[in-house]
Design goal:
The chain contains 10 helices and no strands. With about 280 residues, the chain is an all-alpha fold. Helix 3 crosses helix 6 and helix 5 runs antiparallel to helix 6.
Length: about 280
């Protein structure tokens, strides 16, 4: 009796809709650094600084800066290889995400768009994920009338959310049940992280005289941190938990089918094959 050696077919490298170059990575690093400052300045600026003295104006200032920086990142990523096929895919997924967001809006954090951002970022890569998250949030704000100083923060936070899914390990080899489980775990944690950073964007707008959990520009960092934790527990814990649970449930139930559909679409689109046009015969 002879034993025949069996070999597994080589794992096919997953296509990427956008290949990040040095300029795109630098732009992402810049906007992320400014975003961290924009979200976390109440804990970074000392009480005696001028920024703390203008606590009601600082969110507007950072919102204006973030609008410009997100546009710069989009331009840098587009220049690095956001071709017509990727633009078409971006339009379809952004429109789908924008349409999903109003479903259940205002009801215990039922936001099904988050699971689509996780799966899209996973399949299409971090560069595409950042652009998709930002564009989807912008489109959904226009659709729902949610345009305001919070929108640039939402665009950046959602860009981080989808980009992080594209940075998870094993994009070419991890398949089967382990992949949806990993994405569900990421979605659960990232849903809370998204809610927390968005709380940081809106928290300084509250007047310190209105509540004992509001930001106090004259209080030390430790006191403001305690106020912020109390603010999150009192105002958004239930909403963030609902968002996290919905993301996990949809990722585990619909995730495998959506992942297969996205990967099939990327193979057919052949993003890394340049588009060519045949010369018209005279």
């Amino acid at each position: 009796m002879s034993l025949q050696a069996t070999t597994r077919p080589p794992t096919q490298r997953q296509a990427r809709a956008v290949r990040l170059g040095p300029r795109s990575v630098a732009a992402l690093a810049l906007v992320s650094a400014v975003g961290v400052a924009g979200f976390g300045w109440p804990f970074l600026a000392p009480p005696t600084s001028r920024l703390s003295a203008h606590a009601q104006d600082a969110p507007w200032l950072f919102a204006g800066v973030l609008v410009l920086l997100v546009a710069v990142v989009g331009a840098a990523i587009s220049e690095s290889g956001l071709g017509p096929k990727a633009v078409a895919m971006l339009g379809v997924l952004a429109a789908t995400g924008a349409a999903l967001r109003p479903i259940g809006a205002g009801t215990a954090g039922i936001e099904p768009m988050f699971f689509l951002m996780v799966l899209s970022g996973r399949v299409l890569g971090p560069g595409f994920g950042f652009v998709l998250g930002s564009v989807t949030m912008f489109a959904s704000a226009l659709l729902t009338g949610g345009v305001g100083p919070w929108l640039p923060f939402q665009m950046l936070a959602m860009g981080w959310f989808a980009m992080g899914a594209g940075l998870l390990p094993g994009p070419d080899r991890l398949r089967g049940r382990a992949e949806p489980a990993m994405l569900a775990g990421y979605g659960f944690l990232a849903a809370f992280a998204y809610g927390t950073v968005m709380n940081m964007a809106g928290w300084p707008f509250m007047s310190a005289l209105a509540s004992n959990v509001a930001f106090d520009p004259h209080a030390p960092v430790a006191a403001n941190l305690a106020r912020f934790v109390a603010y999150c527990l009192a105002t958004s814990l239930g909403w963030d938990l609902g968002r996290a649970v919905v993301t996990v449930v949809l990722t585990l139930t619909l995730g495998p089918a959506v992942l297969r559909a996205l990967r099939r679409a990327t193979r057919r689109a052949a993003f890394e094959t340049p588009v060519t046009f045949d010369a018209a015969e005279k």
